[in-house]
Every structure is written in C-alpha cells, then in structure tokens.
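Lab notebook, bench 4. We co-purified these components, and the gel suggests they stay together. Before we commit to crystallization screens, I want a quick structural picture of the whole thing.
Request: model the full complex, all chains together.
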Amino acid sequence: MVLDRSPQLDRVFRALAHPARRAMLRRLSEHEQNLSQLAAPLRMSFPAASKHVRVLERARLVRRRVVGRAHLCRVDREPLAAAVDWLSEYRRVLERNFDRLDDLLEELKSSAAPRAAKSPRHPAP
Amino acid sequence: MGRHAVAVTTPNDTDVVITRSFDAPRALVWDAMTKREFLERWCIGPPGWRMSECRDDLRVGGTFTWAWTNEAGVSFSMSGVYRVVEPPRADGGGGRVVRTESFDMAEMMGTECGGPMPEQLSTLEFTERAGVTTVKVTLHYGSKQARDGAVASGMTSGMEIGYARLDEIFAERLAAPSSTARARS
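Here is the predicted assembly.
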C-alpha cells in the first residue's frame, strides 16, 4: 500500500521542482487566477502556462475550471500541505540520527577515557 | 541529557548546509561518521529502516556505496567517489571529507522516476573547540535549479529516508483528505 502511493507523491515533488510552477503556486495561494494572469508575470505563452498547470493538476495541487474562455485556477491545499510537511519529517530523521550519534559518542568517550570530565554544554552555532 | 540542534540552511544559490555540534573530540566524531562499524549504528533513518550495505574505501579516489532497506524489503542506495580525505590531526588541521554522492532510487520510485538524479558534491568539515566538535555538511549542486529541485523533491543527502516515511504519511492524507493533520509520533 505504501508503494501504491509513490507515483502520486512523485508527481507532487516533480511539480514543485520547477521554479515557474512554484511561482504559480505562490500566486494561487493568494486567490484564484485565470491562466493569462498566471502566464503574464512569467512572460509565458498561454499553451506553455497551460502545460505547467496541467502538471500541477495531475499532482492534485491545483484545480482548474473553465468558464467561457477563461481557465480559472485554484490551489488545493491538502496535497501541498502533505508535500511541504516532509521538511519537518526530514529534520526529524536527521535529529533522530544525530541523537543516536550522541549516544554512540558517549559510549566511545567512556570507553576511551573513563576518567575524563564531561565538557560543559555549549549552545548550537 | 541536553541535545544540540541541527541547523539546515541555504546560504547561497547552489548549496544546502547542515550543521550539528557534538560533545566529543574530533577524532571520535570523525570515526563515528566515517567507519562502517559505527555508521550502521546511527545512520539508519526512521523506524523500520536499517543500513543494509556499507562498502567504503575511505581514501582519495576510493568509492563507497551505502544502502538502506526497510521491513518491507524496499531499498535505496547512495554511492560516490572520495575526492578529499583528511583525518583530523592533533595540531588542529585536517578534519575534512569531500565526496560525490548520487542516489539510486529506482526501486523506491518505480518507473515514474524521470531519469538519473543529479549528482551532488558533499563536503564534511570537523572543527573542535573546548571539547565540542561541530560538523558542517555542505551539499553543493551544479545549479540553482538543481539545488532547488533537490530541496523541493527531498533528494538531498538523508532526505531520501524521509521520503519513504512521507510516502506513508501522504497515503494517510490521500485516504482521508477531510481529516485534520494527524499528530506524528
């Protein structure tokens, strides 16, 4: 079941890995925009912008609705929140690894020099 | 026991810098971060993962392959070449490793993986002051886009482990999109 979800997660990350699409998401996080409004600041053609939005749609980060000739785009926060949360997960993994390293170092210190006094704690740089 | 905090920053367009201090002399921290017998005791990622392989030839031009596997048998690896290996010296010099790193995520990401991932250059620097050793890891990418892409996709060193864990979290959220964020243990 975990592996079934990988393609969707991969689509989210690939969508986020392009600066133009991240710029679009930032604009959309403020309010709904049509495709021309998204394309203009990026100096992009309508078809190029539409292609980027399609990538965002496939990643379920953006929903598009067509009203007449206008393509109105809106961000969907849930998948984005899930993708962004990994940053704190990554820190957590790093912190856990380094906590284990702390324990190992204490063990190595006491076997190397049992009579050495512990250093006073220093704040992190 | 108090813990030092890990800092993760992007000081310029092409780098990611990870900094962490340890209450131990440089020589010990160096050993713990470069020797297989110690690495597999701490460099293991979230619960359910372990280091399955640690082939390491710690010398200039030497290659290394580190691999991790989880309880479901999924695995990924990181390999590369050492460019600089300077063990810490008693005079305060040395304490530097430079190596290339590239990840093999094919098994984890399946056929949707869009081609080989960019290689990153990793520099580890060990400095000691009053019995506290600070390790600074600088991950250098070929371009801003490569660095930003790596950060956005979680593909910097160590993040691939978080990726696997996130997969499970994301699966929970997709299954119940209307629920509020669950607390993670």
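The beta strands of chain B are 7-9, 15-22, 49-56, 63-70, 75-86, 96-104, 120-129, 132-140. Worth comparing against the SEC data before the next meeting. Confidence is low (pLDDT under 50) at residues 110-115, 157-167, 176-185 of chain B.
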